[in-house]
Amino acid sequence: MAKKIKEVANIAGVSVRTLHHYDEIELLSPKKTADSGYRLYTDENLETLQQILFFKELGFPLKKIKEIISSPSFDRREALKLHRKMLIEKRRRLDQMITTVEKTIQHSEGEIYMSNKERFEGFDFSHNSYEQEARERWGDKTVDESNAKMGNMSKEEKNDLSAGMNSIYTKLAALRHTSPASEKAQAAIKEWYDFLNKIGSYSLDAFKGLGQMYVDDERFTKNIDQFGEGLAKFMCDTMAIYADNNKK
Amino acid sequence: MAKKIKEVANIAGVSVRTLHHYDEIELLSPKKTADSGYRLYTDENLETLQQILFFKELGFPLKKIKEIISSPSFDRREALKLHRKMLIEKRRRLDQMITTVEKTIQHSEGEIYMSNKERFEGFDFSHNSYEQEARERWGDKTVDESNAKMGNMSKEEKNDLSAGMNSIYTKLAALRHTSPASEKAQAAIKEWYDFLNKIGSYSLDAFKGLGQMYVDDERFTKNIDQFGEGLAKFMCDTMAIYADNNKK
DNA sequence: ATAAAGTATGACGTAACGGGAGAGTCAACA
DNA sequence: TGTTGACTCTCCCGTTACGTCATACTTTAT
Predict the structure, then answer these.
(1) pTM for this model (two decimals)
(2) Mutation target among B74, B88, B103, B116 for the A interface, most CBs of A within 10 A
(3) Neighbouring-strand partners of residue B39
(4) Would the Cβ of A91 be found within 7 angstroms of any atom in strand D?
(5) Which helix (H) or strand (E) holds B130?
(6) CB proximity list for B76: less than 8 A, separation 6 or greater
(7) Residue A82: closest CA among chain B residues belongs to which residue?
(8) Where do the HTH merR-type domain residues begin and end (chains A, B) (predicted)?
(9) What ipTM, to 2 d.p.?
């Protein structure tokens, strides 16, 4: 039942070193036999590996993959369905590339003219909608950006920021038993949205996604609920309504 | 006509830094204005960039790409046609991956059973036929490895090696009118396989592929048939059988 | 029982850029 | 005509995802 490393490597088509690496960074850590120290992979480990390779195929860095699959809100089935969509999208791009190559061949045979833009159609691998969707769903670049910005700030600036945050949290906490759709709640959440956009840049979708994280990820929930029990949930709802109302 | 770096980056969907990098390693070096030192890209540069990105998409390291496109024997049109084939192959693999995902979804819903091998179908990105073809066409790693190892050897060692080769060739030549599946032929070819793995490292698939080359590439055929007419063909058949028999 | 094959843990190497610093260049607008 | 903001240049260090030894122990096959 439990497989040794080479066998797993062969089945999955990766190197032994890769599996060592995944263990090192704690992305995929199998059990080890007490006596020999050998890594033993279960079938569940194999499933996880499959997931990892899917995400890798889609261009996610290992760090992000780790976050995603170890997140408490990670839903395997949902992920698979998104995978399918993204793969189909990828195939569409591939088709476009094939068309591009065919045009290039014809062009080289003098049959047609080809513009420079056409030359690179299908290559745009980073800016597509489903990957965007995935980034929003599972925590994304904007968060990294904020963190980076925070890193560059002076202590004083951080204090200002933290004061601002606290005041908004407190304001929201006071409203947390009213309706998320109320004018007051919406006004307060707008403050929050504007505030966030000082340190990062959030689309409305990202904002809504962030709200979802507040309840999905217990690290957030715990932090936020310090200002009042149920605040995370209230903010999540309020943010969702705000986002939906403000879409053109 | 001549474009500045940002414009090129935008058209091709790569970063400015990437173009800087390609200039550094002399993969793609545009002209520079004498006065400002700015890089100026011509339309020909753009074409080359397109080729580079194609090869990159197929997983070639930049070093190899440089060799390929700067080789005097490099034929743009031929390369494009192979590109198309490889892209189509890639789409096939992608289709397989999509099937795999769909199966996994059904599996997770308890509708079907799924074997471990099935789990990873479509992922095997390094061992496919067209990429193999490309590697053979434009020089491949195993050959480089052998060359490197050969380079490190003393004259004496080389002589030993050459003696070993000759003795195996002679042995095989003597058997070339018997059946490739016979015990003797298989034993002799195993010697050959082991021998090759002293200087390189050949998987069974690579071994089989090598055998195919013996008949496909006349430089090999000529060389081998010096030991007896038809030896190349005989070895090819014997190697294929050996490879197939030894896959567990 | 002894060799061959597999595995483990470091530690260093590599490829393909990313990203910032510091300084010069260009284009447009006031 | 000056200046401002977007581009560009050349270092140069950092990062990701492993590759590649070296060295030592364990398992498997003969």
Answers:
(1) 0.54
(2) B116
(3) B32
(4) no
(5) helix B129-138
(6) A108, B51
(7) B101
(8) 1-71
(9) 0.56
